[in-house]
């Protein structure tokens, strides 16, 4: 068994790195994989489906760890659009900031962004749990169906627009709610859930500081009088 | 004032019975019409073209003795495993949710029997359709309902859907009455609520992002399977070029006659351009980029007959895709459904309950399909038996391919892909201008300057 595998993107292409992660890795079973010099490249560690720790040492581009299953991927830097897009399981952690659409349409697993996330974080969310250490941009959790978004900082305009059954918790200020989103009183299971997520995300906040946002469910059936709310 | 009754009854061209009915309905209910099927209005179509089959200047092939190849290969640009089909006729994406599981299974069975592909839809891949389909194209749609890497890896190709011909620029609405527990579970949404499908993808917003998105999908599938990009026909020339730049192996263009399960009437009748007009624009775009033959082109939207298929191929398509025609072959709009023993059960009364009649039904959105096709109702779904549906659809596809090869032979072609624009003439000036083929009896192509 290899103790630690290092793959350097100055010598290898993203294709070669992913080929290793999808193939040889399963035979070699290293204790972990370090990917060096990502330099903003896209789709690194996309499509992983095995229990392995992957560390990307630097800033990376779009679709990092896309559709992740089982793996624990840590990006030691910032990421571009759509990190952990459509994730199924496992953990993806961004030590820096994330650009737009972080965790888009994810079904499961945990996405942690230690810095800020830009707009549409958790868009079309389908079950993934997202914890953002900083703030999120506008239209975050737009049309989110299931799962949880925890924002330790502030939320931008139109938070939770057209939400379905996903839940949002915000510690800081909320610029504005989107269509059909509303603030609701925190219940015992909300405190429990936020405490658990903060603990797993290694964020040191008190769940009592958070507000709960969810859908008013007034748009669940077509209503002509809702006009531009749709 | 005239006492002539016929003058008093003269209908206004602007405010005719159709317009009056529309205004009254809008005034009464405050709602626009949502319906299924495709455009009802007459637009220039493949019917307006004819073949200049062989006589002296061209040499025909013997219809019942000489072979005409119809094998079709799609996705040769980047994929390690291109799609190989026996016929250039594929089954278009239609969702589970809109259609029943029995229908999805029938589509897979028929496609497999005819050596062609079928396609998933908004709602994900059902085990029934994967099992029954030898070649299955997996759609990646804006809603991402049911989309996951498990099924992605089981697919034979990916189709990135940017829009469809019946509603380019619009999303979808699966009304709550069709959202059964199984549909709800697949879409990660509560049972019985109206489900809106987004009009744009959640994780990219423009062609530069699309290129990166396609690369991600290729990375996940190790560059094995082709990636199609499907669009409703609007600004075809520009859109095709961007799809090619984004890395599409195959471009799918869906004209305005394309069907849908449920959308606003205003979309169906007033957006997009006819299939006939879209196809030459797409071919020109591929030609401009020197990728004709490298990036394959599928055209869809109102394809019904083998003649339509042949004309589409002659105009430059590599294959066609059929949705509405396939449903009609299964029994859509028929007065009866067929039981396992072959007995037909008349359902005219069920159509009447919907306020319609066989041949005129567009009530796919209600989930009350009298012949068990566009439904999730446990009482209606069994009306379509997969094996019976598959047999009917196989027959239909077989006829289309026989008609296609018949026309190709008559034009002197031993391969359907050898059909060419020079084999066609147009019956109307409009069709000649759109298809860019000469008006019959002349060498005039409107807009070309040549006479």
From TrEMBL, chain A:
Domain of life from the UniProt record: Bacteria
InterPro entries: Glu_synth_asu_C_sf, Glu_synth_lsu_3
UniProt-recorded Gene Ontology molecular function terms: oxidoreductase activity
Transmembrane intervals: none
Name assigned to this protein: GXGXG motif protein
Organism: Gimesia panareensis
Organism placement in taxonomy: Bacteria, Pseudomonadati, Planctomycetota, Planctomycetia, Planctomycetales
TrEMBL record, chain B:
SUPFAM superfamilies: FMN-linked oxidoreductases
Keywords, sorted A to Z: Oxidoreductase
The EC number(s) this enzyme carries: 1.4.1.13
Molecular functions per Gene Ontology: glutamate synthase (NADPH) activity
Pfam families named among the record's database cross-references: Glu_synthase
Annotated region (Disordered), positions in chain: 113-132
Signal sequence range: none
Domain Glutamate synthase: 73-335, 360-413
UniProt-listed GO biological process terms: glutamate biosynthetic process
Name listed for the protein in its UniProt record: Glutamate synthase [NADPH] large chain
Species assigned in the record: Gimesia panareensis
């Amino acid at each position: 068994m290899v103790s630690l595998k290092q793959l350097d993107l100055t010598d290898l292409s993203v294709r070669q790195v992913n080929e290793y992660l999808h193939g040889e890795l399963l035979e070699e079973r290293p204790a972990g994989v370090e990917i060096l010099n990502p330099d903003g490249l896209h789709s690194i560690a996309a499509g992983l489906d095995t229990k392995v720790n992957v560390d990307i040492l630097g800033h990376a581009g779009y679709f990092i760890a896309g559709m992740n299953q089982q793996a624990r991927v840590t990006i030691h830097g910032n990421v571009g659009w759509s990190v952990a897009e459509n994730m199924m399981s496992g953990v993806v952690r961004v030590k820096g900031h994330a650009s737009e659409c972080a965790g888009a349409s994810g079904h499961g697993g945990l996405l942690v962004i230690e810095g800020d996330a830009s707009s549409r974080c958790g868009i079309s969310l389908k079950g993934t749990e997202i914890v953002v250490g900083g703030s999120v941009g506008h239209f975050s959790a737009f049309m989110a169906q299931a799962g949880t978004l925890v924002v330790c900082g502030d939320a931008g305009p139109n938070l939770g627009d057209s939400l379905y059954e996903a839940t949002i918790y915000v510690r800081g200020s909320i610029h504005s709610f989107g269509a059909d989103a509303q603030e609701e009183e925190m219940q015992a299971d909300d405190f429990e859930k936020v405490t658990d997520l903060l603990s797993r995300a290694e964020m040191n906040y008190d769940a009592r500081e958070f507000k709960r946002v969810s859908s008013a469910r007034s748009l669940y059936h077509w209503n002509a009088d809702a006009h531009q709310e749709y | 004032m005239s006492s002539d009754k016929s003058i008093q009854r003269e209908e206004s061209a602007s405010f005719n019975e159709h317009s009056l009915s529309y205004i009254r309905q809008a005034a009464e209910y405050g709602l626009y019409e949502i319906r299924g099927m495709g455009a009802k209005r007459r637009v220039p179509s493949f019917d307006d073209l004819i073949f200049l089959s062989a006589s002296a200047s061209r040499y025909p092939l013997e219809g019942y003795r000489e072979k005409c190849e119809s094998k079709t290969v799609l996705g040769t640009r980047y994929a390690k495993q291109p799609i190989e089909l026996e016929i250039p006729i594929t089954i278009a994406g239609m969702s589970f949710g809109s259609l029943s599981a029995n229908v999805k299974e029938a589509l897979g069975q028929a496609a497999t029997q005819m050596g062609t592909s079928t396609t998933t839809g908004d709602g994900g891949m059902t085990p029934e359709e994967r099992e029954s389909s030898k070649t299955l194209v997996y759609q990646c749609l804006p809603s991402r309902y049911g989309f996951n890497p498990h099924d992605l890896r089981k697919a034979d190709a990916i189709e990135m859907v940017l829009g469809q011909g019946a509603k380019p620029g619009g999303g979808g609405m699966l009304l709550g009455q069709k959202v059964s527990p199984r549909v709800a579970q697949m879409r990660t949404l509560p049972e019985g609520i109206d489900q809106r499908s987004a009009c744009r993808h959640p994780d990219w917003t423009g062609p530069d992002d699309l290129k990166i998105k396609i690369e991600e999908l290729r990375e996940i599938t190790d560059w094995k399977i082709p990636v199609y990009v499907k669009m409703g026909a609007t600004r075809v020339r520009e859109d095709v070029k961007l799809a090619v730049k984004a890395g599409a192996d195959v471009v799918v263009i869906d004209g305005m006659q394309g069907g849908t399960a449920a959308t606003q009437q205003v979309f169906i009748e007033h957006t997009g351009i006819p299939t006939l007009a879209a196809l030459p624009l797409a071919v020109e775009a591929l030609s401009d980029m020197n990728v004709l033959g490298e990036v394959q082109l599928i055209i869809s939207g109102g394809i019904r007959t083998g003649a339509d298929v042949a004309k589409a191929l002659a105009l430059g398509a590599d294959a066609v895709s059929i949705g509405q025609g396939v449903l009609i072959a299964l029994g859509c709009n028929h007065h009866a459904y067929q039981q396992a023993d072959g007995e037909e059960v008349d359902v005219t009364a069920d159509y009447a309950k919907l306020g319609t009649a066989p041949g005129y039904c567009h009530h796919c959105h209600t989930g009350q399909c009298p012949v068990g096709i566009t439904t999730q109702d446990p009482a209606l779904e069994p009306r379509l038996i997969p094996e019976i549906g598959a047999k009917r659809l196989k027959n239909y596809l077989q006829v289309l391919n026989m008609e296609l090869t018949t026309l190709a032979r008559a034009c002197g072609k031993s391969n359907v892909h050898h059909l060419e624009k020079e084999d066609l003439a147009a019956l109307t000036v409009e069709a000649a201008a759109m298809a860019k083929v000469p008006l019959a009896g002349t060498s005039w192509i409107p807009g070309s300057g040549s006479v």
